[in-house]
Amino acid sequence: MDDPFRELVAILEKLRGPDGCPWDREQTFASLRPYLLEETYEILEAIDEKKYARLKEELGDLILHIVFQAQVAKEDNLFDIDDVLRGINKKLIDRHPHVFGDVEVESTREVLENWEKIKLGEGEKRLLSGVPKHLPSLLRAFRVQEKAAGVGFDWDSDRDVIAKILEEIKELRRTRETNDQEKIEEEFGDLLFAIVNLARFWKVTPEESLRNAVEKFIRRFSYIEDTLKVQGRDVRDATLAEMDAIWDKAKSKGL
Fold it and tell me: Full-prediction pTM beyond 0.85?
């Protein structure tokens, strides 16, 4: 077969067939969920590490799961992979009238605004209903804000966002004095939400930014552990001042 995609579809049909693989035949929409999520994170890891041979492989694994889900749906007479492809093809054409139609745009912002307005016109009941609840909270906050901004509900400038962040910090400090843990968590969430807004204005992806910060912390703390180990010591025996000094050395090395 000279069509790799159709070959993949045929392979999945065989694996799910009477003479196929017992494991593949047992799978359902729900049982495949964790694998689908795992493959997505492996793609992100390959991109971050610039391992493009691995990226090629991981993209294949993700496509496998998309075709797998479609095959399960076909067997349940819900839809098949061709329906999936027709749907996304139509969506891309309909939501890019500035490319496939006669709409004119002058900026990416206008493209995003048109996209959200078209989605609402397609029957989506609420603007924010399309943001998955299972997204990591930072990413979900970013997407919620992005969608709201797409229809004009947004701050005028980053100065306004910074002022909001400072306001939230003051509110959090006042709330901290009350020792009301539930209220403290609420105000802390408001502060994080405002910081995500600033990230959006500055074209920073907060989820990626925080993940990179976590990885940097791990590298530097590992350097502390390794340095102390060479000295025959353990982090539990070192003082904070000693660990801070080694941390600064790791920082100076660009770790």
Answer: no
